[in-house]
Amino acid sequence: MNETYNGIPSVFKRRDGNFEIKVLVNAGMLTSGQMKIVSEVAEKYGTGLHLTMRQEVGILGIPEDLLDKALAELSEVGLSPGSAGPMIRNVTACLGNTYCFKAAQETTSLAREIGEKFGEQKVPGPIKMAVAGCPYPCTRPQFNEIGLMGRVKPDLNIDDCTSCGICVDVCKTGATTMDDGNVTIDYDKCNMCGRCIINCPADVRFSAGDGFMMFVGGRGSWPPHEGQILHEFISRDEIIDQIDRIVTVYKEKGEPGKRLKEFIGNIGFEEFKQLVKSE
Ligand code: SF4
Ligand code: SF4
Ligand code: SF4
Question: Which residues lie closer than 8 Å to 269 by C-beta, 6 or more apart?
Answer without folding.
Answer: 228
